[in-house]
Amino acid sequence: MHFSNEFNIPVKFCVYKTADLLDVVPCEGGVVFLDPGNNRNWNPAPGEYNTSFDVRVFKPQFIDQLLGRVAGVHRRGLVKITPQGQVVLDNTLLYHNIEISYPAMVEDVRSLDELVRHVSTAAERRLKVRAVGGGYSFSDIAHTDGCFLYTHNLNKVLSLDSDVLKAGTNTENLRKVEAGITVETLNKALWAEGKALINQGGYDQQTIFGALCTGTHGSGITLGSIASTVRSMHILTCDTNRAIRQVQVEPSDGITDPAAHKARYPKIELIQDDDVFYSCTVCFGAMGVTYAVVMDVRDSYWLKEDRIKQPWSTTKKQLLDGLVRNTKYRHVEVLINPYKETSVLTFREEVKATAPSGQRNFIQTELAKVALLVHMIQQMANSNPSGVPDLLESALEGTTDSGVIDRCYEILNIGPANEMPVVSSEMAIDATDIGKVVVAVEEIISTFKNRASSDDRYITSPFSLRFVKADKGLLSMQYGRDTCMIEVPMLSKTYGLDETLRRFRAVLEQKHDGRPHWGQVLEIDASAVQKMYPKFDVFKRTYQQLNASGVFSNEMTRRCGLDG
């Protein structure tokens, strides 16, 4: 079943209240769950729109398993009540042509024992298994028609067993967590003990599991992705007989003492091997289900943020003059309006502070919450495309600020903008030579301008540049090179969205050795993956070892050439 922007699916409206889900709406071929989030008291009137619902679709026979907070497809959806009292689910707020996952078995996992039991049951039934974190990926990495595991309740900070670590291992900045914990929850737990994540992405509702699967990154050319901070991974997989196999995977010089570990945890196989470990850090769930990880953290810190609007030509000169590697700044990011050739340059630096000060722009923090405004902007962009450049200019103005100081995780989380109904593609290009990055950016600007002039189709959000340190993960977008991540988010009902994003990706893949973000809209096949990742064969060998029975295969693994 595919949803597209060409039609709405009318469904009969019924209310089914549970602890977590407000509406259960039967529709042809499935059940649509409308998760109200903070809008539980919304009482829809005919013709009223609301964009604050998470949409989940499953086959009707699995409804008994779905009354808990279990996500199969987790996307932002637009709900309209017609004058006749019908609910119309406007699926164009999902990205176009998304294939909905219809799992045969859905489980909400709350402990290691439950995880073992559910994976074992699924394997015995010869079902494929996929786990999901927050479910916010635009790609199909978590799709399966087999067993779907929801990991949000694997959310505890665990005790680190220092007795099995090598002598002399410094544990002050090591923390062990269940992989379903969200970045937000972990941030608060770490801050309470004077610690913090080394870096994070702009969205704190992701789980650590999801961040690892997709290669989530922040910004800062001296800072790697979240996966680069992992020191040890506890993974559940299956052997050739489909029996549970628990492995703890570490680099060759890993932190664990093999003899002590074997004596304490005889059922968990310790693998200390660089090829295996760096195959597992970013693997879109192909190696099994990650139960827990040991991560590097650091002392807590405060950040000061400045966002300055200026011509792209000025920002370009600063980039070429070495701004990205200026040690004064921990983070450098850029937003660009390609039609006006303007930009917002963001600097973040560590400061000494004991309390927040300053305030982000009102538009950035508040107006993004207003669903009706978002809908109006979308309608305006489609009905009067020539007005988009001015809309983007206003959007840039709305992100500026000066001297805002807050806890690191508050500054790094971009806030309500995350709730905008958008679809995005992101590409990773080599940032060793910033001059080549600038050339690529100017080609993207030309691509978007040409698309506007020839087809009257526009991007509906500024695109961004973020800089990330090289990574050792074999399928990490940052593998082997300092990287510029270029992201194009678009309001998800934008006319021509798919083709616009496709042209963006093509420019960077064909001319600049670009690698697509695993969790965003992408088109990729085996030949492309092999070309992009020089150690793909090593990754595939590890995949065949850890996923020997194919339990964790899905369409993504097949498309990437891992199966067969």
Give the C-alpha Rg. 23 Å
Estimate the helix proportion, in percent: 25-40%
Q: Please list the strands of the largest sheet in the order they lie side by side.
A: 21-18-20-19-23-24-22-25
Multimerization status: single chain
Contiguous low-pLDDT stretches (5 residues minimum) are 1-100
Average per-residue pLDDT, rounded, comes to 81
What would CATH call the architecture of the largest domain?
A: 3-Layer(aba) Sandwich
Number of helices: 15
Specify the CATH class of the largest domain: Alpha Beta
CATH superfamily of the largest domain: FAD-linked oxidases, C-terminal domain
Structure explained in plain terms:
With 564 residues, this protein is of the alpha+beta class. It has 3 domains: 9-150, no CATH class; 157-299, Uridine Diphospho-n-acetylenolpyruvylglucosamine Reductase, domain 3 (2-Layer Sandwich), CATH 3.30.465.10; 302-522, FAD-linked oxidases, C-terminal domain (Vanillyl-alcohol Oxidase, Chain A, domain 3, 3-Layer(aba) Sandwich), CATH 3.40.462.10. The chain has 15 helices and 25 strands. It has helices at 112-124, 183-192, 208-214, 258-264, 274-280, 312-320, 362-365, 371-383, 388-397, 408-412, 434-455, 497-512, 526-532, 536-546, 555-559; strands at residues 9-11, 23-27, 30-35, 49-58, 75-81, 87-90, 105-108, 129-132, 147-150, 157-158, 174-178, 195-196, 230-238, 244-250, 268-272, 289-296, 298-299, 302-311, 331-337, 342-351, 401-407, 422-430, 463-468, 483-491, 515-516. Strands 21-18-20-19-23-24-22-25 form an 8-stranded antiparallel β-sheet. It is globular, with a radius of gyration of 23 Å. The protein starts with 8 loop residues before the first strand and ends in a 5-residue tail after the last helix.
